[in-house]
Amino acid sequence: MPTEPLTPVLDPYALARELSGRHLIGGELVAAASGRTFDVVNPAKGEVVGQAAFGDAADVDRAVAAAVKAQKEWAKRPVRERGRLVAECGRALQAHVEELARLITLETGKALRTESRIEAGVLSDSFVFYGGLATELKGENVPFSPTVMTITQREPIGVVGAIIPWNVPLLLMALKIAPALVAGNAVIVKSAEEAPFTVLRVCQILNGILPPGLFNMLSGMGPECGAPLVAHPKVGKITFTGSVETGRIVYRTAADKLIPVTLELGGKSPMIVMDDADLDKAVAGAVVGMRFTRQGQSCTAASRIFVHSSVHDEFVGRLKAKVDAMVMGDPMDEKTDIGTIVSPQQFERVKGYIEAGIREGGTAHTCSALPEDPSLAKGLYVRPVIFTGLTNESRLAREEIFGPVTCIIRFDDFEDVIAQANDTEYGLAATIWTNDLKKAMDATQRLEAGLVQVNQNLVVQPNISYGGIKSSGLGKEASLEAMLEHFTHKKTIMINMA
Ligand code: NAI
Ligand code: MG
Question: Residue 143: what pLDDT?
């Protein structure tokens, strides 16, 4: 029975209180089986804004039971109906963009204008996009013999577990949930410790449209709530975004169960600026690529910028000026370009890397200014740092920082820079900035990354497949391909007519 659409709540504090202490299981907002909760903190002010339900294996069991039941009925529905309902979710979410943007800003400290609103918009687009792809769940007719008709068909996997991080939770949940549902699966989302409420609010909005139990949302810690979800015998697929370390744990458990996984892990994405590059565009591309507006908290962050010696100093000067001009402040304020780091742990980790860079002999060009507002004194603000004088061997160039810290590395030779760019554990994304067509084309063929861009640094789009190689992960997200390859099984059917 369809319920009344929810009215957007523009006061994120009120919404955080309202959503406190709840999972979404079987279409109901329910407390954790244990009754436990944990604090959710606004990192811009250091204040507790609510308590999230502390999920554990008992909650996982309840969610899986609800999902198994709902999935059977859902998979029998005509694909166009499944697509229509998922697209309707997208349209319903459109009415909540401002509400969701404010709530995500409250939980994560991401700037409302430059980050959260954009993310909430893409969330809605992704549901509409996947809803429209429902009838593309086609099989094939395989030529074999005139008397044996051989066809393939795409079937849902069953129950999908989706584990998401805190940095772009809405976009990442959309890229997991929407294709999984359209393909006929049920989903259980496990939100990140730091950002449970916005994800829960999205699930509450969808709950008015989709059948109860088709998707369920649990909040909680990795080991207590994420691990039993991965290990549950009735969860047939895990799609995970997060750290390499946790990705390996998830993959090991999935290996024991022999179930498929999609892993979106870290990155150390190179950006190469050749001597003939349009420097204005390259500098603007570095600001976007480094996600300075998100305090660099991105797996795709352009955290190794290789700049040709002849333009190195000019590039550093211009980049510093551009980042200096960005306003760091209250993330809810429309004037703010840069918000805070998400949590005290990440804050300490990022500061540790900045100290390590200085110890390794790098020069730290510290940019922008800390906010002066005394109400933000407890906020997790880190001034962005551009390092020069470090090599590709340094810790800062090898390890994922997940903060507003980039290394600019000087180079002279094209062959050498391609080798350095590829000399990393990761392979998520790469860019090259040049007007030399031959070099650009050559680089696109030789850079080891899931996504290579020339003279641009676009962020993830719903219709373009995205995913890394090497330690950056397994499988693709976004696009039709991701829905077909990662949320369905292919069954072959042979009919002997002789
Ligand atoms: P994480 O990988 O530990 O957490 C991501 C998600 O996995 C969260 O929902 C968490 O609860 C869950 N999780 C943790 N342990 C689990 C387990 N044993 N089984 C199942 N699920 C589990 O990442 P965290 O601790 O938030 O950040 C640490 C570092 O990871 C960051 O500094 C950054 O380098 C990287 N990271 C990368 C992201 C990406 O987009 N690729 C996103 C977030 C973090
Ligand atoms: Mg962790």
Answer: 96
Closest among 302, 285, 294, 315 to 457, alpha carbons compared: 285
Q: Is 42 in the pocket of ligand 1 (CB under 6 A)?
A: no
Our mutation pick for probing the ligand 1 site, out of 243, 263, 401, counting the most ligand atoms within 8 A of Cβ, is: 243
Query: Which ligand sits nearest to residue 195's alpha carbon?
Result: 1
> What is the pTM for the complete model shown?
0.97
pLDDT tens digits, one per residue of 340-353 = 999 999 999 999 99
The pLDDT of residue 460 is above 90: no
Q: How many residues does the chain have?
A: 498
Strands 385-388 and 215-218 come out as: unpaired
User: For ligand 1, what atom is nearest to the CA of residue 246?
Assistant: 2
Chain centre to alpha carbon of residue 279: 29
Find all residues with CB under 8 Å of 308, minimum gap 6, and list them.
273, 274, 275, 277, 410, 411, 412
Going from the C-alpha of 281 to that of each of 223, 432, 456, 457, the distances in angstroms are: 44, 12, 8, 10
How sure is the predictor about 1, in pLDDT bands with cuts at 50, 70 and 90? Answer: very low
In angstroms, rounded to a whole number, what is the distance separating the alpha carbons of residues 462 and 242? 19
